[in-house]
Amino acid sequence: MKILIPTAKELNLTAPSAIPNPPSAQTQVVLDELATMSVADLASFYKISPERAEVEWQAIQALREGTAQHAPALYLFDGLMYRHIKRQDYTKEESQYIENHLVITSAFYGVISALEPIAPHRLDFMMPLKLDGKGLKAFWREAYDQALARDELIFSLLSSEFETVFSKEIRQRMIGFKFLENRGGKLKVHSTISKKARGDFLTALITNQVTEVEQMRKLSFAGFTYRPDLSSDQELVYVKEV
């Protein structure tokens, strides 16, 4: 069983450092391509200022030279979803659960353990990077599929940006989630609700050691409860009464 979560743009640069593993062959290809770009190229590619592009150029050089600071991915990423995940004072069982089941999908590192040491970087699947004549999604698809080849049960907290990197065969095995608020009888959903709820939901999975769909249906967390009338076999829906 695997639980998939996305990366985040916001980073915690004070996260505790960790010794990195050697980069995968695919990560090295991505890094080598980024390293061919000048500061001006990076400014255009990322659509950022020359000053910010200089910072990114330095980060890429540090990665190439093996001097970049690394931290466990779960602690380095610091977006809204991540800030709603329990990330400290784990029990032994909770740490083992994360180690065994939680993975992060990255356009730079691929599908990695949530505790894999990674370096700060800027890359997502919407960026027009060409690798071996392929876009980022096509470039990563085989490695993404292989990462989940042995997992019969796949829980996805990903957006479509990340899910569509996987082949249709893998996506058909995923169970997704939707988080809604009931405001005066009207069901509302937006990115802030979803990001917070994903983090709270993941915390509930970790603390309750959830590994089966039926356990998920019984969960209540942060005011959300399961709604069987809105759910399907491929998507579980949770609603918060506001």
Q: Output the radius of gyration.
A: 19 Å
The percent range for strand residues is 15-25%
Order of helices and strands: EHHHEHHHEEEHEHHEEHHEEE
Class by SSE composition: alpha/beta
* Total helical segments: 11
Which stretches are low in confidence, meaning pLDDT under 50 for 5 or more residues running? none
User: How would you characterize the largest beta sheet?
Assistant: 9 strands, mixed
Number of strands: 11
- Level of helix content? 25-40%
* Span of the ends, CA to CA: 33 Å
Net shape? globular
The average pLDDT is 95
Tell me briefly what this model is.
This protein is α/β, with parallel strands linked by helices. 40% of the residues lie in helices and 19% in strands.
Characterization of this structure:
The chain is α/β, with parallel strands linked by helices and 242 residues long. Helices cover 40% and strands 19% of the residues. The chain is built from eleven helices and eleven strands. It has helices at residues 25-35, 39-46, 50-65, 73-76, 80-83, 92-101, 136-147, 160-163, 168-171, 191-208, 213-217; strands at 2-6, 71-72, 102-106, 110-113, 117-118, 154-156, 174-183, 186-188, 220-221, 224-226, 235-241. Strand 3 (102-106) and strand 4 form a beta hairpin. The longest helix has 18 residues, at 191-208. It starts with a strand and ends with a strand.
